[in-house]
Specification:
- InterPro entries: AB_hydrolase_1 (IPR000073), AB_hydrolase_fold (IPR029058).
- The two termini are about 30 Å apart.
- The longest helix has 16 residues.
- Helix 4 packs across helix 5 and helix 6 packs antiparallel against helix 7.
- This protein has a single domain, classed as Rossmann fold, CATH 3.40.50.1820.
- Helices cover about 40% and strands about 10% of the residues.
- It has a seven-stranded mixed β-sheet with strand order 1-3-2-4-5-6-7, with helices on both faces.
- It is α/β, with parallel strands linked by helices.
């Protein structure tokens, strides 16, 4: 890191030590293989409004069936985790780092949507074996503009502290049965307004500890994250995104959920030194 970056990190960490994040009870769901094959554990981090349930629907059990211990954490105020009025991006990052530190081995962090932004910040505080950003929402003005174009009625209230309301076409592909889409939509919650504003501010993450390999997954038909944003996200890590046409933003809940997960697991198996 440059001297300027090191100085900024020291100042930031000093503030964090002076004002520690309040502890909050975390929901962590899991599925583990019957036999320990030595694969690194996966920690799935859902995006804003989603909880660990989004990965428990399909991905946890399938990852375990392929030998990977799989865990999903609900950020504070989401899913079955403790309510946390005034939660910030820093608090969400704390939840992920603490959950990862409690796993039996060095973990792979997998963040979806705004959960990918949380993972990018967690990578500066936790030495992950690898990271996967799924349909990443990494914040900044471009995020707000893309959301306003795709869903102005549901997005505008969030810019003023209200709830972000996503609709079916944004989250799922056409193949998903309406009954399943309604069931998933009914479970969506909301992030705290402070975290939403911090997402839009788009503060860049600090450099990752140990420079772990990073994979970016997404869909060119995602109505939350446009293709250009996927390309930019992957470009930050010197790669191109792995794309799954015809799927919506919530790849882990869509009809063809197994395709991106298998691609993720295959990448982990082939990545040198990751096993």
């Amino acid at each position: 890191m440059s001297g300027t970056t090191e100085e900024r990190v020291r100042i930031l960490r000093g503030r964090e030590w002076a004002h520690p994040v309040r502890a909050a009870r975390r929901e962590v769901l899991s599925a583990v293989p019957e036999l320990d094959e030595g694969c690194p554990p996966l920690l799935f981090v859902p995006g804003f409004g989603h909880g660990a349930w989004a990965f428990a629907e399909h991905w946890l059990e399938h990852a375990a069936s392929r030998g990977f211990p799989a865990y999903a954490v609900s950020l504070r105020g989401h899913g079955g985790s403790e309510p946390a009025p005034g939660a910030t991006l820093r608090a969400y990052t704390h939840d992920v780092v603490q959950a990862a530190a409690e796993l039996p081995r060095q973990a792979v962090l997998v963040g979806h949507g705004a959960g990918a932004l949380v993972v990018s910040h967690a990578l500066a505080r936790y030495p992950a074996r690898a990271a996967v950003l799924v349909a990443p929402v990494l914040g900044g003005p471009a995020t707000a503009l893309a959301a306003l174009r795709a869903n102005p009625v549901g997005t505008l209230p969030a810019l003023f502290g209200g709830a972000l309301r996503l609709h079916r076409r944004q989250l799922f592909g056409r193949e998903l049965p309406d009954a399943d889409a309604r069931r998933h939509l009914a479970r969506l919650g909301r992030a705290d307004r402070r975290a939403q504003w911090q997402l839009l501010a788009g503060r860049p993450a600090e450099p990752a500890v140990g420079h772990p390999p990073v994979l970016v997954l997404g869909s060119p038909d995602d109505r939350v994250v446009p293709p250009a944003a996927l390309t930019r996200a992957a470009g930050r890590y010197g790669a191109a995104p792995l794309l799954f046409p015809g799927m919506g933003h919530d790849l882990m809940l869509d009809t063809r959920w197994q395709e991106p997960l298998d691609a993720l697991l295959d990448w982990l198996v082939k990545e040198p030194g990751r096993r």
